[in-house]
């Protein structure tokens, strides 16, 4: 019931927003040029206590989807894009009279999108925003639905990363409305991925009912889809599509686990973390960076539950794998392990690990990690002082 209710609610919201899609390029304000490192919206919903936060950086572990579209849908839009680029390259050596007006507009649209993506790569976000607004107007002018979806997706992801959540919500829904009206099924990976980002936005905005329904929609849709895949002949489904669907389920479980942990539902968070970690290890290997992330996050939640020994076992394993693979962020895992040892009351060992992690972080030039590790050392000193005071009183 909750799943069907969420689907109806989401489609209803998209329908209400449909009338403003054509005005979206006017209503979305220009993006800031700030180059400061910002948290993703789902990160900012994390626990407030420093003890509750895993300092391991979040990294995308679902195969990159630049415009928030899966491979099947991206094939359609990329095919259009590559064909247009090929035609434009050919036109450089041909007569401009041979180009139709439609082809010229398509070439201009592709050029705008390429400029926008390049601007995003070099951090010129204000310029990227201008190019994308021009591109989406041209896409509407030429009634190119694939280009509209692709451009709205780029705009939505840009707003999402910059924390402009209201704009990101509107743009994701705009892209989804065109996909659904074009016949894309609701359980398409592209639709589910956008729904997951909407759920993360709602979580950050403390719209808990919408967030919970959104996460449930994503996980249940993907689980049902994976069950259907089991009944299909092997030749009817590529290994890549099967893997992408499982990894998207892992990503959904990971996102929901962080939301649950932020709301102190630790038992449910642990269950989702374990399932996500199992999927990641099966599909990408135990040493994959995201497998290490999930081990660390699971250890953090177990530590919060007072299960320090189990937490220590997970983070130790993550460190072993990181050291064996030469992972550049070993200092972050060492810092997490130091925190768990501190909570166990093993202050001397915690201090050694904090110092070791600090040296590695400084050598790596990781200012953010250095600051977090220094905060950990301060908390360790305070705990030592409190223990000494208690012992003296006794």
From TrEMBL:
* Gene Ontology, cellular component aspect: mitochondrial inner membrane
Annotated GO biological processes are: mitochondrial respiratory chain complex III assembly
Which keywords appear in this protein's UniProt record, sorted alphabetically?
Mitochondrion, Repeat, TPR repeat, Transit peptide
| Lineage top rank: taxon | Eukaryota
Task: Show the InterPro entries listed in the entry.
Answer: TPR-like_helical_dom_sf, TPR_rpt, TTC19
Give the subcellular location. Answer: Mitochondrion
Fetch the Pfam families from UniProt.
TPR_12, TPR_7
- UniProt record similarity statement: Belongs to the TTC19 family.
Q: What is this protein called?
A: Tetratricopeptide repeat protein 19
Q: What is the lineage of its organism?
A: Eukaryota, Metazoa, Chordata, Craniata, Vertebrata
């Amino acid at each position: 019931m909750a799943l069907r209710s969420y689907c109806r609610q989401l489609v209803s919201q998209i329908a209400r927003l449909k009338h403003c899609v054509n005005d979206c390029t006017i209503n979305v304000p220009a993006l800031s040029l700030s180059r400061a490192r910002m948290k993703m919206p789902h990160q900012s919903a994390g626990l407030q206590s420093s003890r509750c936060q895993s300092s391991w950086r979040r990294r995308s572990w679902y195969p990159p989807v630049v415009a928030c579209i899966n491979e099947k849908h991206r094939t359609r839009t990329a095919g259009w894009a590559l064909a247009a680029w090929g035609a434009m390259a050919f036109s450089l050596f041909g007569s401009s009279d041979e180009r139709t007006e439609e082809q010229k507009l398509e070439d201009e649209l592709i050029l705008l999108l390429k400029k926008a993506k390049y601007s995003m790569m070099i951090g010129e976000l204000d310029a990227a925003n201008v190019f994308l607004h021009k591109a989406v107007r041209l896409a509407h002018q030429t009634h190119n639905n694939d280009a509209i979806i692709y451009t709205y997706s780029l705009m939505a992801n840009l707003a999402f990363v910059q924390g402009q959540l209201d704009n990101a919500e509107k743009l994701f829904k705009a892209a989804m409305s065109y996909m659904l009206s074009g016949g894309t099924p609701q359980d398409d990976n592209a639709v589910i991925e956008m729904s997951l980002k909407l759920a993360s936005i709602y979580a950050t905005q403390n719209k808990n009912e919408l967030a919970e329904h959104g996460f449930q929609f994503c996980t249940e849709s993907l689980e049902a889809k994976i069950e259907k895949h089991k009944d299909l002949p092997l030749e009817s489904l590529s290994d890549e599509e099967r893997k992408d669907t499982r990894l998207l389920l892992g990503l959904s479980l990971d996102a929901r686990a962080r939301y649950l942990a932020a709301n102190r539902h630790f038992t449910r968070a642990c269950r989702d973390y374990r399932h996500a970690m199992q999927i990641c290890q099966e599909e990408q290997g135990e040493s994959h960076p995201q497998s290490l992330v999930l081990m660390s996050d699971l250890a953090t939640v177990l530590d919060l539950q007072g299960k320090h020994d189990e937490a220590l076992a997970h983070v130790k394993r993550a460190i072993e794998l990181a050291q064996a693979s030469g992972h550049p962020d070993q200092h972050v895992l060492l810092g997490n392990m130091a925190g768990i040892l501190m909570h166990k009351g093993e202050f001397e060992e915690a201090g050694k690990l904090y110092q070791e992690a600090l040296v590695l972080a400084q050598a790596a030039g990781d200012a953010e990690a250095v600051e977090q590790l220094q905060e950990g050392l301060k908390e360790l000193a305070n705990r030592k002082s409190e223990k000494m005071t208690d012992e003296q009183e006794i």
